[in-house]
Amino acid sequence: MSIEVHNPCSARKLKIGYIMQVNAVDMSTVSGPQLHVKAVFERLKERGHQMRLVAIQQEKTQWSDDAQNWYPSTFDFSTRPPFRVTEKLVRGVQSRLQLPFWRFFDSVRFSDACVAAYQDFDLLYERDGMMCYGGLIAARRLGVPLVIEVNGDLVEEWRQLGIQMSKAQWATVHLITRQFYKSVSHIVAVGDTIKQRLIQRWGLAADSISVVRNGAEIDLFLNTPIQPDTRSRFGLGPGPIIMFTGSFQPWHGVDLILEGFRTIAAAMPEAQMVFVGDGGLRPELEQKVDAYGLRARTFFTGRVSHQDVVHLLRVADVATIYHRAEAAEIVETPLKLFEYMAASKAIIAPAVLNMQRILTDNVHARLVPPDQPAALAEAVIALLRAPQLRAALGEAARHEAVTKHSWDRAVNELETLFLDISGTHQRKKQR
Description:
Helix 11 (282-292) links the parallel strand 10 (272-276) and strand 11 (298-302). The strands form two sheets. An eight-stranded mixed β-sheet has the order 4-3-2-1-5-6-7-8, with helices on both faces. The chain has a six-stranded parallel β-sheet with strand order 11-10-9-12-13-14, with helices on both faces. The chain has 17 helices and 14 strands. With 431 residues, the protein is α/β, with parallel strands linked by helices. Helix 1 (32-46) packs across helix 17, helix 10 packs parallel to helix 11 (282-292) and helix 13 (335-342) packs across helix 16.
């Protein structure tokens, strides 16, 4: 589907239901997904569209009109005795016979909450979740289009997380995922690699998928001055800082970054490594830090506010993103990359296709072979010894972020797409 340019001031206003069935994005805690949802939700609302979010929060289905204040969802038939008795019986048989899990009752119940919340809405927009099709059921019941946002290959993500399932369960996952993608009105992929993956793996038509890359809060990073107390607040020394921001998942390559830092630390005794964020790999990383004797020079901030991410990046000398080569379908357009660019950082990134579509080597960043900590270390050391090159790379990256990678640009494209889909749907109804 081609994206035409509309004037947001003259465009008609929509009622858009934003939905998240899985309990994966905690809107009360800063994370990449939370920032993404918040940016899209708030900007569409600022443009005059009525927005309502229905999501699993704290393991309960809730709704919000501002993504901050939450209210319990209401349900219809899914809370009545016939449905609940049927669910109990089926789940019992499923458990005893070890039948594949379909997430059917969860999806039907979630659809019930969506139907109650989205009467007279024009369109539903859902952040994709594994085997979550409550939004599709709700869209069919309401007679409105459903647009799915795909941020990565969830099947591949489960595989890399080591989630163990039987062959029958994996077959069920593939069956439901393929049917789900083919049944929605349109798909938004956050990058070209994911779009190609959707086409090749699930057999989808190219014109059923639009690419809308993620963005960054450009003004926040441009207009925030360096805070003199940032280093002291986080216990950092005066030496040069290499920084990673984000979650510590297997595909993000944080262990590779730490391996690279061993070499950097030997060559540059004043260098410091700062990991901003948290995640499942942190205990393992901290154990390695102790084993390598790098505790005094490696810092883990844990989760911090988004404003503190900005402050920390302001004092960083080199920002790293070094996901594994096989993870491109999971880490297509990470928010950290656009934030590094907006913050005018000298960036080290892997020379893989999803990065090469955004960054030009020795213009916006230094691109190094993936999965090679020694190559990473060599590039970081070279940048730390070349302040003029760092400044030039940072300035070029900042200009690229301002012109191409703002959230305003992303939401412009989403708004135009939603208007086109809603308009087409309305014309079909009138025939």
